[in-house]
Predict the 3D structure of the following.
Amino acid sequence: MRDFVSILFCLMAVLRSGAMNVEAVHSPDSVCMPVSDDSVCAVLSDKDLTLYDKPYSTTLSMKNWKRLWINTSVLVGAGTATMFVLESLPADATDWNKSENAKIPLFRRWVENVKAGPVWDKDSPVLNYVLHPYAGAAYYMGARSCGFNCWGSFLYSFCISTFFWEYGFEAFNEVPSIQDLIITPVVGSLIGEGFYMVKRHIVDNGYRLLGSKVLGYIVAWFVDPLNETIGYFRGDQRKLSRRADSRRIEGGAWLSPSRGGIQGGLSLSYSF
């Protein structure tokens, strides 16, 4: 039945474009859709599709481990660079006691901080309740846009914020924080799922927001900075935008006089 539907959609696309011949490849796990003005019909297998091509679901997974490992590698590199930047900032900008830290060897300092925590920190409200939740949401989207469901994305956000940051880089300079261990992954994941729905809306509209692609790209990067930055070099935005533009509903109505009175009808077509 699915084979028949795939072939039918391909034939419909050919008839609408006026093409005379088409050679279509299909499989039980494929979807046929026009993807550009130059190709009438292309078959996209499950390997080509992403969560953004599927209906919204909190439990559906289409895991792309390769992209997740790339995201994680970028996070490690960015985290290392961030630590160098923070080390160069004044002590009042990070609340780290740099003069005391300098007296203790690096790895001994890490061990002592891990043993002493976690504690209720005294960081600024902006850092604790704005920047940390946003970081948790960015970690969450790092997995969500790689095909992981809500729970898998939450686990990824938890692991990155807890083991990579609180008990990783940051523990070399301060005792792990209770607020950061809870707020970053939990609140961040809740915000992250909201970010995911915002990005779905943007992607579904061909990377347009309020009719503007510029605004769409900016907001998409804000809600998913990791995947949007890396995806730019892979051409992800272009592919998803082209697919969305090829999925559209067209309709029309007609009326015409006849010998018996007036004839009319409605037409509705959905191309994807």
